[in-house]
Design a protein that fits this description.
With 633 residues, the protein is α/β, with parallel strands linked by helices. It is built from 19 helices and 17 strands. The structure holds fructose -6-phosphate. The site of fructose -6-phosphate has 14 residues, from loops.
Length: 633
């Protein structure tokens, strides 16, 4: 077993786990560790004058690992001359040059930037004629054997539990072959193929046996949409319906997880069941909230037996069940406020925000031009109507999420009103008419950005904000004109530092999508956190509180909520209307994600569901609630 990953100190903690797994705060740190293991192995083999055979994966998970390997090559002289690679899989049919091919993926993320010998690269060929596929797959399998087998296999995990493209039902003894792809897998890939109908239904993949023969296996999983399948693979019985669970049989495998992907493991979700609990106030709150859920009771109705019968007797050593109930009840009760900017002239001990100063400068960061209203539209509305100086800063232009047909519609309107411009726009109109893909053309992207700006202004005006308080930051990392974004740079940070320095806010609101490993929200949050670390000693920052809201899809667990802002039925309707102003993001949205509901429906469902949870644990009965967690920097 590799010793560079820290294992949990207490074996009790992992007693439900059948696969060695380590958890990192975030996927970046975890990726550095994986890249280090790979580079140590390559160097070790170099010393022994041997080849190093790597099994490689594609997808979003390994991108940071490959980035670090490229950095190690460029800056620390790591050579890949002794490396032979075998990729896990490729869509079928698929030409090597297609931008969706894994061949293309590997070139742009790794092979084009290192000194690997081209003849040492092996990726299943998606263009082999169908009648030759079996023969081709056997040769792929034999080539791995001839090279001495795989020394190190890097894996991701699909939401179906697939490894490689071994979907549920795959055989324990399967080898490289042609397979049919699961609907969920194709749906997850639809973003880069511009619709599920364009995602191939079949693929070539190494088999379970091929993978299991590797001498060392590291599987990465980032983000909470993997947490359920990760838990099943690690803790449940081996099951062909969760192919990753076959790895329980392997002697040298590690699952490397970020916090979000680990959140369903017993040691994280309900650590008291493992017999190992480091009780602090947050964990106590988590336990009481969980107890309410499984007993179907409100906080103040929980009894001593409820605690005893559900592995929580340890909690009763230092306090009575009654005190535990009361402490948690008070915490949640205190979090509820109709005054998100603080209630002027009031005793604020029992409120989440300070009453002073009565009129606060508030800076709302919104990763895309609409997250502000989708995620905290009700709170935004209250802050403005309660007289605070509110600013909203849209971090990215969001320009790739405007469909060609929307850009075309606006251009045609302009042309019909100003016929003199028509000839200037003809080329672009032709381009837009003929294309279903995102068009990486500067003018088209500029128009798309402008459409989103005007939609945002319509929404912020509706809320009552003056245009001068609306800032479009257009962070450069986003401006690639494609789904793939640039690395963040000093230029991104400078823009965020400048606006905070200029406004000197008493409150910052930001999208705290900690679980979104590669998306724009997480990148925007990381930039903000870096800036807060830089600014923290400035005197005005001592008065600045940071509140994190969740994006369109997740909610804070109830015990982590520090501020809950209820909405009346009328405010729910106002929020809906503000979201409606973002017309290009309604109906046929370009980047919908896994959830087919429109954004306003998701927001309303989520705000209603959390209000119901508050009611279930014994709080007042509100129509809807928006929630926030305070970030202490
Ligand atoms: C990719 C592969 C797949 C992915 C899995 C996770 O070569 O074989 O098993 O590892 O689908 O994909 P991401 O990392 O995009 O979540």
């Amino acid at each position: 077993m590799n010793i560079s990953y820290k294992s949990p100190g207490d074996l009790e903690q992992t007693r439900f786990e059948k696969i060695h797994s380590v958890i990192f705060d975030d996927s970046k740190k975890a990726s550095l560790m994986i890249a280090k293991e790979i580079s140590d192995l390559i160097k070790e083999k170099q010393k022994q004058k041997k080849n190093c055979v790597l099994g490689l994966a594609t997808g979003s998970s390994p991108i940071s690992v490959y980035q670090e390997l490229v950095r190690l090559h460029n800056q620390e002289g790591l050579s890949f001359k002794n490396v032979i690679t075998f990729n896990l899989d490729e869509y079928y049919p698929m030409s090597k040059d297609d931008i969706n091919s894994y061949n293309h993926f590997m070139n742009i993320h790794l092979f084009d930037h290192i000194d690997i010998l081209k003849e040492n690269i092996n990726i299943p060929d998606g263009s082999v004629p169908i009648e030759k596929i079996n023969d081709y797959c056997n040769k792929y399998e034999n080539k791995i054997k001839k090279c001495g087998g795989i020394d190190f296999q890097l894996l991701g995990i699909g939401r179906t539990g697939h490894i490689g493209f071994n979907e549920p039902g795959s055989n324990y003894n399967s080898i490289t072959r042609l397979v049919h792809l699961d609907y969920l897998t194709r749906n997850d890939a639809r973003k880069s193929f511009f619709g599920i109908e364009n995602v191939p239904t079949t693929a070539i993949t190494m088999g379970i046996r091929t993978i299991r023969k590797s001498k060392r296996i590291v599987l990465m999983a980032w983000g909470n949409n993997k947490s359920s399948v990760v838990q099943k693979a690690i803790e449940d019985k081996i099951d062909s319906n969760i192919p990753a669970s076959y790895l329980q049989d392997h002697k040298n495998v590690t699952f490397v997880l970020d916090n979000a992907a680990s959140e369903n493991l017993t040691r994280i979700r309900t650590p008291w069941k493992t017999g190992y609990s480091d009780w602090n106030d947050e964990l106590k709150g988590k336990a009481v909230a969980w107890l309410c859920e499984i007993t179907n009771k409100s906080i103040l109705n929980l009894t001593e037996s409820d605690y005893n019968e559900n592995n929580l007797s340890e909690l009763l050593i230092d306090s009575s069940y009654y005190d535990l109930n009361l402490d948690f009840y008070k915490k949640i009760h205190r979090s509820i406020t109709g005054w998100p900017g603080g209630k002027p002239d009031s005793d604020d001990k029992a409120r989440p925000e300070r009453s002073e100063p009565p009129r606060k400068r508030v800076l709302i960061f919104s990763p895309h031009p609409d997250d502000d209203v989708i995620s905290m539209g009700g709170t935004f509305d209250r802050l403005v109507s309660q007289g605070h100086e509110v600013h909203v800063a849209y971090q990215t232009s969001g320009n790739i999420a405007v469909s060609n047909s929307d850009v075309l519609k606006f251009l045609e309107v302009i042309d019909s009103i100003f016929p003199d411009c028509a000839s200037d726009n003809n080329d672009i109109i032709d381009l837009l008419k003929d294309n279903t893909e995102i068009i990486n053309n500067a003018r088209v992207r500029e128009i798309a950005a402008s459409i989103r700006e005007k939609e945002s202004l319509a929404a912020t005006r509706f809320i009552g904000l003056e245009d001068k308080n609306v800032h479009f930051l257009k962070l450069p990392f986003y401006e690639t004109g494609t789904v793939k974004k640039n690395q963040t740079s000093k230029a991104d940070k400078k823009i965020i530092l400048d606006i905070i320095n200029e406004i000197k806010p008493h409150q910052i609101y930001a999208a705290g999508d900690l679980a979104d490993p590669h998306g724009t929200h997480k990148v925007c949050l990381d930039i903000l956190f870096d800036c807060l670390a830089v600014l923290k000693n400035k005197s005005f920052m001592k008065d600045c509180w940071v509140w994190l809201y969740r994006g369109a899809w997740h909610e804070w667990p109830i015990h982590e909520i520090d501020m809950a802002v209820p909405m009346s039925p009328n405010q729910v309707l106002r929020k809906r209307k503000a979201i409606f102003y973002h017309q290009t993001q309604k109906d046929n949205v370009m980047f919908q994600g896994d959830d087919n509901r429109e954004f306003w429906v998701r927001a309303e469902d989520r705000n209603r569901e959390i209000a119901k949870k508050f009611r279930d644990i014994g709080m007042s009965d509100y129509t809807a609630i928006e929630t926030f967690k305070r970030y202490h920097f």
